[in-house]
Structures
1.
Amino acid sequence: MHSVEFQAVSKSYPIYASPGDRLAELVTLNRIKRHKDFWALKDLTFSVRRGETFCIIGENGAGKSTLLQMVAGILTPTQGSVKVNGRVSALLELGSGFNPEFSGRDNVYLNGAILGLSSREIDARYKQISDFAEIGDFIDQPVKTYSSGMVVRLAFAVAIHLDPEILIVAEALAVGDLYFRQRCMRKVHELRAGGITILFVSHAIGDVKAIGDRTLWLDQGALREIGDTDLVVSKYLAAMVEKDSRYLTLQARQPPPRAAAGRSRPPEVVERIPNIDHRHGDGRAEVLGIAVLDTQGRPLELLEPRSTVVVRISVRAVEEIGLPIVGFMLRNHLGIDFSGTNTARLGSDLPPMNAGDVYTVDFHLDLPELYPGSFSFSPAIADGTLAGYKICDWIDNAIIVQAGHGDGPVYGYMHLPCRMQLNGRLSGGVRETETTLG
């Protein structure tokens, strides 16, 4: 049996350009239409099984709140039908269902009565509610004096202790502090294990994946995807990353601000690639050269332990590159990817490149003490974001530099700076004092 059933449900709201247009419709008894219809939900069909934890995700304005308000009986559909089988307890917008002039205690009894519980039944649950809310003597004060956190504490406590068959939990839960949120999530898990049907709406994707049996993705009022939570969430996140990339690309096409007068001269362009083991990419941009330098700009033949080196990479655009990323991969003497970085990873968004533009990027590395072998640098330029990009040019092992010897042997690939503390030792049964070395 299903707890909730939506059949071809649509919901529209009239949008008026001005209050006068609304009045004109009233005066003409709606014979003259002076509004536009905004469809918050469009032909929505799905069902929620009894005992299922059903999550709903989507961007702001996707129609999630409208859907939940229909389940709660607050709204009716413009088209289609909504069937709800069971007592519904809802935690929707902050403080919804509370009378701000009443005390917290009065609102507990008011909500219980609305759900059909007698005063005796509410009496039996009241201590559990007040203990879970943890708002102390404020429960006898008017709700209008509560902080937002106190309101959501009481609202959630009421919602879960009035024997719901269907529990609706919306984004209002995010208002609570971390301690209370954790208690709420544990309670949701308990109710879930007890067979309560739960409709859960949140932008916290981790919570959705933790409790959702199935998930519905709403997109501008329409059903975009429904099914296994992991699959739906993966598709949703991929779409959000793609949307963010489109936004960044659009921003990148805006003309960059003019450089301020008197700014220092840019680094010299590097046009030498000492070695090419393999080269790949779509060719829309190219690496012109790479150099490993000291802080004075002089070429290095040895990577000294605990020193700062500059990896300078010059690139040129063959076509327009909207979101250029320049970086390199550092490999050790065994060919293992040892470390790497790029401009996007460092939070430095480069301006878009037009065909023919040349950028030179300096990476300042603070070296640890490395195993005294050879290390290679593989430079690259890509177009996109960290979440999604296309390689324009990548050169494997373009320059190789030897690591110098440090003060002692290096066990493994590198020596990590650390302290050693002798907590104490027993000598002839007498404990000696602590000693810290390094």
2.
Amino acid sequence: MALSDDELERSTLRAVAWRILPLILLGYLASYMDRVNISFAAPTMNAQLGFTASVYGFGGGLFFISYAILEIPSNLILARVGARRWLARIMITWGLVAMSMALVRTDWQFYLVRFLLGAAEAGFFPGVIYYLGLWFPQAYRGRAISRFYIAAPLASTVMGAVAGSLLGLDGHFGLHGWQWLLIAEGAPAVVLAFVFLRFLPDKPADAAWLKPEQKAWLDARIAADNAGIAAPEHSNLRALLRPAVIALVLVNFLYLGPYYAFTLSAPTILKAATGLDAAHVGYLVAAGGLTGALGMAAAGWSSDRLRERYLHLAIPLVAVAALFGLIASGPAPIIVMAAFLAMMASYFAVSAAFWLAPGEIVHPRAVALTVAAINGLGQVGSFLFPWLWGVAKDKTGGFHLGLSLLPVAFLAAAGIVMALRQARRRT
């Protein structure tokens, strides 16, 4: 008996979601952990290796320079050779480089390994955004992206939960606790790479677990979505010069950089502001990951349900600015903790909606390049802000100046989003 259209739609998307999204989520979880786990290693690593805040901030941000340089080439290769092989290659190399961070002894070694880590990971996130566009119609893409991107806040939960135990291994087999943390959190990426090679299909036509009628429905639905988007540019490079794309680059620059500047020092800041010990700060960061996951899931669901992207960006951007302003004012510890948890929910609500915009602005043939450019160019801010944050810390002796300036960047990003919304409504 043939399925009705509604039953075919539900069964197809259910099969795709259960087969694709858990693998992607685990991959991005490992990616995000290896990107920011030095925030937990920093207090003891910096003290033992003699790194100043400027050295740490510069090295932490160097990741994003090589990441930005190689984003576009990496995504172009992925589109040519297929997601399965290229994402697995990315994961093997970044896992090995992340583990090698435990061997760092000098500031220049720290700079080199962080630069290589960014080069190794480049292309993973925009590659996944492009890949999901091959499997999920626009009406479902917000939920799909939020369900894999939820790994970013959950990475904070995992790191916060296990960091204390890993740091507690200090002295075992002649390794410091921060070395154990970096090795243990780099290894899963290498293992997952082989899982990707075995179980991740490149496109719906390669999925043995989809029935022929499900493949036909999915191809027709995505083709219909693509037909409603602007015709492809004569050259895909021209898509990068569209004002809407440039606006998204600026928004990404302004909301990613300040967040990473804060995140790379978050355990240290929260410990000073709340008086908690390292283990309890880890639990607070873990709780922030959970509120971030809830904010992301809610924003993804709401954005799809209302088919609205821009207010789902602007409103939480303003909320993040207000909450960072509250943290900078130095209120009672309980208020700092509440503001941190609310900030995480608001920040990841932005992330849930942001990556839906490129697919509604440019033609699918240009999405791989456009997403890579938006992510790569925006990541320049993720180098500049942590570096300047470290310089400010060394000059002033504290984090107050940096915290006080973070709201300005988020408010500027919100203003650009609202201008983009007005331009889109006019056209």
